[in-house]
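Lab notebook, design round three. We kept the backbone fixed and only want residue identities now. Task for the bench partner: fill in a sequence for the structure below.
Input structure tokens:
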């Protein structure tokens, strides 16, 4: 079974910790930064789930 490299897992954990801090202290952060990190983590989770064949997501083009 494939696993993620420990360095990747450590980076993901750091991002989750950052987001948790942002959610606990929203007045200390720009709301757009909280949204961007949330979206980045969501995209990362989707990619991981797809990589391991757990689920397939249907991608749509997004206008930025």
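Proposed sequence:
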């Amino acid at each position: 079974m494939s696993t993620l490299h420990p360095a990747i897992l450590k980076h993901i954990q750091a991002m989750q910790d950052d987001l948790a801090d942002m959610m606990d202290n929203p007045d200390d952060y720009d709301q757009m930064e909280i949204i961007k990190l949330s979206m980045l983590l969501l995209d990362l989770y989707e990619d991981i789930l797809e990589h391991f064949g757990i689920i397939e997501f249907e991608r749509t083009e997004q206008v930025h």
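Keep this in mind before ordering anything: Helices lie at 6-24, 31-51.
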